[in-house]
Specification:
Elements (H helix, E strand, L loop, with lengths): L2 E10 L9 E9 L4 E6 L6 H15 L8 H9 L9 H22 L15 E6 L14 H14 L3 E4 L15 H18 L4 E4 L7 H11 L6 E3 L7 H8 L6 E3 L6 H9 L5 E2 L9 H13 L3 E2 L7 H12 L7 E2 L7 H4 L7 E2 L2 E2 L13 H6 L19 H5 L3
Parallel strand pairs: 4-5, 4-11, 5-6, 6-7, 7-8, 8-9, 9-10
Antiparallel strand pairs: 1-2, 2-3, 4-13, 12-13
Length: 404
């Protein structure tokens, strides 16, 4: 079997752009006519630049090759240009190509991917969602605790048993920083409102984004311990595992991290440093399904669990579902709401979600197919913003006090 053709799609998401400004999908086709789909989660450059990178990597390392040879593809891409270092954009490109290869392999074998990486363990996957509270102007509002509580109740009524939110304020290119006393008070009050709203029916997940210095994160954690969160996510910026370990050892809240890490070596550093006990790899960034399976195995050795991160499109989500289904130390899967709206439209059949759980597909490969009419109607992306962006200004205490 040989891969012969690559097609890419930059799909623009509708407002309010839940899951990012755009999604980068790619399709591979073999000489025998089997098609596979993947997704690249790479936010450092404009997607048109990323597409050029996808085409280059395809021509160098995959065209004319057997899609079964996942290890070869990984090692050649990881070593490209005499690097053997976790280059974020290369890892994103590799991830999308690797997913598509697995989709082909699964379809060729007439098996879901999870049956080829250890077999089904979980019949259903517990999932959580971020809160998306909408104010009277139709905008997402993350500062009003009352709106957050109303949104939490709605998700609980849908069947979610875990909800996530970030009370720690905007994240800046200059983070981490010491958040203000006002922001500490706000975070505590926000969590209290959510806990009062959902009782013990839902776990609370504190979803910070590396905003804080270790000492600031510890101050916040001590205030939030009374609400017994399931985790405290990425309390400090990525890249310095000992700083995160300092937070982990001074709070009873489990620390979670991983969405911005790109290889098993980085995750090993987190685990050996006791920096986190919940691992949140994004399969569109770490090298794909097989590499994520290795990371999950590393976590298992340290009695850590995985909670795959998804803030991208449904193809990356489908890959995460395949991994989670076959992983013994799976904890919970991130969902984007209930996979409705544009997530449903862009697929021929939606991801199945029932009463707080994802039901893994029994179809071969990734278990999904793109709706190419919807893909075409929403391509190409014409904006200039990246998938996600950080505030370009340094954090200021006065910003927290401006609404007083």
């Amino acid at each position: 079997m040989q891969v012969k053709k690559l097609t890419t799609h930059i799909v623009s998401t509708p407002e309010p752009h839940v899951g990012g400004m755009y999604w980068i999908f790619l399709c591979l086709e073999t000489k025998c006519g089997i098609e596979g789909v993947g997704e690249v989660y790479s936010a450092s450059f404009h997607p048109e630049v990323v597409v050029k990178a996808i085409e280059d990597v395809f021509e160098r390392y995959l065209k004319g090759k057997d899609p079964h040879h996942i290890e070869r593809l990984y090692r050649e891409c990881y070593s490209s240009g005499f690097t053997q270092r976790p280059d974020l954009t290369m890892m994103g490109v590799l991830s999308g190509l690797e997913m598509a290869c697995w989709d082909i392999v699964g379809k060729s074998a007439n098996k879901p991917i999870y049956e080829l990486i250890g077999g089904k363990i979980h019949e259903k996957l517990r999932s959580y969602t971020y809160l998306y509270p909408v104010d009277k102007n139709g905008q997402h509002n993350y500062e009003d605790p009352g709106l957050g509580a109303e949104c939490a109740i709605k998700y609980k009524e849908k069947g979610f048993t875990a909800i996530k939110f970030d009370p720690a304020g905007p994240y800046s290119s200059y983070s981490g920083h010491q958040i203000s006393l006002h922001r500490l008070e706000h975070s505590e009050n926000y969590c209290r409102k959510i806990r009062d709203a959902v009782g013990d029916s839902c776990d609370i997940l504190i979803g910070t984004h590396g905003q804080m210095t270790p000492s600031s994160a510890i101050r916040l954690a001590k205030r939030l311990e009374q609400f017994d969160p399931l985790w405290f996510e990425e309390p400090v910026p990525p890249g310095q595992s000992r700083a995160m370990a300092e937070v982990a050892k001074k709070t009873s809240i489990p620390v979670a991290t991983g969405e911005r890490l790109t290889s098993k070596y980085e995750f090993y550093d987190i685990l050996k440093s006791n920096s986190a006990s919940i691992i949140q790899m994004n399969l569109g960034r770490v090298g794909g399904i097989l590499e994520a399976k290795k990371i999950a195995s590393l976590a298992e050795v340290y009695y850590a669990q995985i909670a795959p991160h998804v803030y991208n499109g449904p193809v990356g989500a489908a890959a995460s579902i395949q991994l989670a289904t076959a992983t013994p130390n799976f904890l919970i899967q991130e969902s984007i709401k209930t996979w409705d709206g544009f997530y449903q439209e862009v697929l021929q059949e939606p991801i199945k979600w029932i009463h707080g759980h994802i039901i893994p597909s029994t179809k071969p490969g990734l278990g999904i197919e793109l709706n190419h009419d919807i893909v075409k109607a929403n391509s190409p992306y014409k904006g200039q913003k990246l998938h996600l962006s950080m505030n370009s200004r340094p954090y200021s205490v006065s910003d927290d006090l401006s609404d007083l």
